[in-house]
Every structure is written in C-alpha cells, then in structure tokens.
Amino acid sequence: MTAGGPTVSFVVTVYNKARYLPRVLAALADQEGEFAREYVIVDDGSTDGSAALVREATRDWPNLILIEQANAGPAFATNAGLARATGDYVKLVDGDDVLRPDATLKLLDAIRRGGAGVAFGRHGRYDPDASATPSSGQSANPPETAPEIWPDPLPRVIRAVDWTPSDMLARRELLFAAGGCDERVFVQDYSLFLRLAGLGPFAQIDDLVADCPLAGDGGGDRMSNRAAQETHDLNAALGGYLADRADLAPALCRLAARRATGRARRFVRQNGQGSRLTLIGPWLRARLPLPLDRVAAQALIERSCAAIRAVGPVRLPGSQPTMSAPAKK
C-alpha cells in the first residue's frame, strides 16, 4: 500500500443476491492496485440469507462495515452506504455485478488524467450458471486508452445513459455535493447520474470494468428485469431533477420532457391498452417547437409517470413524496 495514496470506498448494495455474492465478493477482494480500501456493504432487508453469506465471506476483511436495514429500496440503500464511506473515492457496486480485476485502477487513472470528478467504463455480461465469469483470472480489458472527457455531461445524460452504478467511480466529495440518490425515486442510479452531471465533467473509458448477469437472468430481484419500474423511475428521476433545479435552462427542460414522454409513449404502446390515450396530448406538446418552461415540463413528466403506473406495477418509496408532490428547494 502506497503511503499517502488515495483511499477507495467500495459501496455494495445487496437485496436477495445470495446466488451472485460469492463471485461479487471474490472480485472485490481481487481488485488490483496499491491503494487503501474500505468496504461498506448494505443489506437492504434480504430474505435469502445474503447478510449471513456476507458476514461469513468477509469475516477476515479489514476496514469492512456491514449495514443491515429493513427493505427500503436501492436509493435508500445506496445513500446509507455513502453516508458511511470515508474514502477519497467511492466505487459503487450492485450486489450481482462482478468487477474486472483492474476496474478500480482504470477508473482512478481516468479521473486523474481527465481532471474529472466522475469516471465511467463499459460493462459486459456473464452467465450466473457458468463456472467462471469473464473477469476471472487475467484481465480481459483492451490496452489502456485515453479517457473521453465530457465537459458538460448533463444534456447527454438527459438524453440517455447505458451505464450501471458498477461502471462508475467518483470523488466522494462530489457525491456528497450531489446529495446522493434522489430518495423520492425507488431505483437509484439515474437520479444520481443526473445530479452528478450537473456538477462538472465526466471521463469515460472504452474499457470493460464490470460484468452484469445476462439480461434474461431471472434470479434475485434485478431491477432491469422489471420494465415498468425501470421506465417509470427514469422519468421520475428527470421530474425530480427538474423540481430541484430552478435554474435549469428551458432547452434542457424541454429535452427532459421530450425524453420522458417519448419513453413512456413507447412503453404504453407496447404494454398497455386504453391508458395509452393519456399520453397523446403531452407527447404532441413536447414535440412542438415552442418554448417549454420548467413547470410545464414537470407537468408532462408527471403525466408520463402516471401513464406508466396505469400499465405496470411500480413501487414508490413508502414514506417519501411521489412525483405528484416533489420536494422544492
């Protein structure tokens, strides 16, 4: 361990991930690099023995904190872990994602070379039933490449993201400045990406840094297999971000409304029946080349969320405001 070097806090959120945890924890232990590290693992009310598995597998790990809490959802679990992290940097890890051996080193290097507070890589896929993951043994990453710097990442993040939290590393001070995840939204990742994108540049590397379970894998409670929840919370995160940003430019408000209503319209068309009519008005209005202020954009996004909830099951944070009553600055 290099004296005076950086400290990385690995914040891992777990909900019914016993099937995946042996690989996930082994990959954490195998992270390459001469940096100090701490581990904060949050068990969000698992009922499959995940917490006991973590306790047994990490009993000899130094600098480990295991938080066991009643199930509250990914946003609350992530924030609980962030609150206990003390490192210079935070490496978020979903409880079923397997880090590549040099993931943390590559992301630290991208931040250092790019002068950014946040770095992202790419993720691959693994079969949970296979005997090994792509990240086992020698790294499968391509040779080191210079990071791509996004000086103003917010418009790009509003349009779309294809990252997971496991693809990201960020300066802890920036995560705190962002306020962590939006706890008005059940799923955590997009609200955090939006908040970070409003604070400064991102660095992206074209390297694999993590592997996620195959998209069709039905084990655990993987949120990406729940289309209604995921689609709803992408839009809810946009609505919450607009609610908190009174200074947001009208062009970005309009972009957010167009993305949300278009996303909801596609989802309702594919999965709904009569409820698709609730989107026709707001979708047309969002596409018209007219000014669209923050309040009007929020209203469109709220209607898009309501249309999705009318089609599929969506969990809302139990004690927090929903999109019909967002918190104001």
Would you kindly provide a written description of the structure presented here, covering whatever features stand out?
The protein has about 325 residues and is of the alpha/beta class. It folds into 2 domains: about 210 residues, Spore Coat Polysaccharide Biosynthesis Protein SpsA, Chain A; about 80 residues. The chain contains 11 helices and 9 strands. Strands 1, 2, 3, 4, 5, 6, 7, 8 and 9 form a 9-stranded mixed beta sheet that branches. It starts with 6 loop residues before the first strand and ends in a 20-residue tail after the last helix. The C terminus is likely disordered.
What is the tally of beta strands?
9
How far is it from the N-terminal to the C-terminal residue, by CA?
43 Å
- CATH fold topology of the largest domain: Spore Coat Polysaccharide Biosynthesis Protein SpsA, Chain A
Seen as an oligomer or otherwise, the chain set is single chain
Name the helix and strand elements from N-terminus to C-terminus, one letter apiece.
Answer: EHEHEHEEHEEHEHHEHHHH
Name of the CATH first level of the largest domain:
Alpha Beta
Largest sheet: 9 strands, mixed
Q: Any guess at the CATH architecture of the largest domain?
A: Alpha-Beta Complex
The whole-angstrom Rg is: 20 Å
CATH superfamily grouping of the largest domain: Spore Coat Polysaccharide Biosynthesis Protein SpsA, Chain A
Total of helices:
11
Q: Overall 3D geometry?
A: globular
**Mean of residue pLDDT values:** 87
Strand content: 15-25%
Q: Uncertain runs with pLDDT below 50, 5 residues or more?
A: 218-225, 319-329
Number of domains: 2
The portion of residues assigned to helices is 25-40%
Structural class: alpha/beta
